[in-house]
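Page 37, top half.
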Amino acid sequence: MTDLPSQITLDQWEVLYPSLYREGTVRPDYCGPLARHVSEGDLRLNSLLFDNSPAAFRLWNFLLTEEDRLREARARGVRIVGSMKDLGTIPVMAYCLDNLVAFYPDGAWWIPCIMELKAGLLEIADQLGVDESFCPVRAMLGAFVTEAHFPIPDLLVCSAGAVCDDFSAIAQRLNGLGYSILWWEVPHRRRPEANEDYLELPGGCTAPESQVALVRTELQRVRSALEDLAGQKLDEEHLSKGIQNANRVRSKLRHLRTLVYGAEVCPIPSLEMLIAEMLAIHFCSDQGETVAVLEDLVFLAQTRVEAGLGFGDEETARIFWVNPVADLRIMNVLEQSGGRICGTEYMFVHALDPIPTNLDPIDALARTALADPMVGPSADRAERICKDIQHFGAEAVVISRIPGASHCALEGRVIGQTVQDRLGLPVLEIEIPPLTDAMSPAIRTRLEALVETVKEKR
């Protein structure tokens, strides 16, 4: 029943689920009818179209049961680390120790979308003085106050310095509410001056050696805090093994991206690919299961590519997407408009690059942290985007602005202009709020116009 690729509704998944269960396809204990999450408040699921494969079913179940895993971990005595803003560094360190689990409270920014504004988190943020002029990540404040969406971490760690101004202000407000935060600094990555010693970073950038040394010192402080929390030594052996485990996840994701974005016919829809890529930053609170979920998706992609099966056809417009969307439904709308994702930059490409294994582990992690596209010049980020566009053969670029996000004010213009100057491709910059229902027709019209532009340029 799921051999031919198609996108189905939640109701259609309810019809398919019993057959998956009978066939033994639903393996992990956390898998069950997706509709059960609607009764828990995840109303946006009713508006989405899902890939009809068992691999996608497992992916969605994995994503939607993270809170359960965190609460089960606490019940077992595992200590919980809330890592904020660095997107891909501190969780690698936390998962080196067997009695720690890490997650990103930042992920609360999707709750207003998933629960269709019914959770009241943005209203709580308003009451705390963080209004809609701020990024939707302000929902994190409401999630902490209500304690309804994740257990309060035993240790909160947050990168400071070269981070989004909105997030920095929101995290400081959280600290002011009594939630103690261990801050560690990431400087604004700059290009080395003449005759200044510099080091290579993952992804192709460079940074002054002095900046790497500063971040290395900061990560040593985080290392000590993790050791105190775990009651274990985070030695070189543990760190090296942890880096190898993280690289395994990153390798699976790079393979998946290559298969999907390089295929003539898209084998996995953009919504499932967005969720899959997000697993890189903190493994959805289970590193081992993340690998298994990705292996299923890689096998699915390989099978469909070999059979020439997928979504759209060879003529479908190949779109490179910049920044994650606040409303997940827009990924469906893109495909309904005649486009497909053919490359992405969701703000954390450094979490997809392999962490160096031929260096001291802390030094390797310091270089990884400094490779974050959001801590360096916008021109560096634009340069990497151009390289990836050429690698995947994208024909146009969509830059989705995040409402209120300070880093989106001018960065999109820099990226868009660079793409147009360097590659001559059409660029569409649009703002995506947490719910796009009222704006969806207008957004779809603009995406359809972009698709037509692509076809005219061929």
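Page 37, bottom half:
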Amino acid sequence: MISSADLVRLTRALRDHQPPSPRLDAAPPLGDELVRSLAQAVHFSRSSVVLTDADLDAPGPRVVYANPAFEALTGYRADELVGTSLRALQGPATDRAVLDRLRDDLEAGRPFEGRAINYRKDGTPFVMSWRIAAVAGPDGAPTGYVAIQDDATRAWLAQLHQHETIDALQSALLPAAAPVVAGLEVAATYRPADDRSRLGGDWYDGVDAPDGTAHLLVGDVTGHGTVAAAHMGQFRWALNALLASGQAPVDAVGHVRRLARGTEMFATVAIVSIPPGRDRVDVVTAGHPPVILLGTDGSTTALSTDLALLGPATPHADVVPASAPLRPGDVVCAYSDGLVERRDRSTIDGVALLRRHLSAAPPTPAEPLDGYVDSLVRALVDDQAEDDTAAVLARRA
């Protein structure tokens, strides 16, 4: 760590562009040649470098030295700010929370790194990233601070554009609100494995067919993140359009399977179809975990078909949907494998666990399904989710 005495010598060298005078009281920890080299390196650095005193209270800390890169960055001449505070760079959009953290870090003896909007001399805002470290005196207390600053505006704008792109993808691809279906209470939830982008390969959907049949879907595309989400959108909207046009679920799955032959995409899907009378549930699954029907007596029934998952070169066969009566109060549960599967738990064991949970802790007649589906995910999925999770519950009124 550079001592305060060395800082004085280095500062003088930076100001004068000449080697500092030798110290007479002791051999310097830094040799004159090294101090001269450091002075030149700082003076000609492409990054803005500022040295200040250690007074954190206004009007400090006062500028001791600023290099030419600082002048180019801010529009201020160094001699305009020497002896004054860098608070001149702050303005209406400067994040107070960042400044508070800066002070907290320096008072605690920690180096600081942050980014905030500052203002050039002509009033133009820019995003400045900077790193600050203390210069210690003989007793270890700070006698000044060294700040390295860079213009991060371009990187910040690029990041903002990326976030806007992700927001647009979320709006277009992420599951929407739970479908509204006459005669049914429907609740749905989606939990991505990637909390940062919130994008993944799972989805749920609701489609009203021309004959009044309500189709509820849960699907799962292999992979995570933005790429999986983009592939998911292709499967989701293709199935949505086919079912909305009146295609039977088995036929719709066959058409989507043919669309996937020229790709490297794989997906699974469960389609829950409830005819207009709402007294029956028909299920078609393609490579997907079974749909669970929870009766008011606590019994559970697994409904599935033997269709292969959707993807290139996967075979298709016509099957008869799995059907069961749907009585008042019965609950249908469709979900992706993120709800039941773990590295240490197979899908079969996970489905058995789900059925036991539904039987042991079913929703009460007065309990809204919105809250119940969230509690179901919390009960079966820990905080460190390994996969995306989507689930749809429907209860006959």
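Margin note: The CA atoms of residues 18 and 36 lie 7 Å apart.
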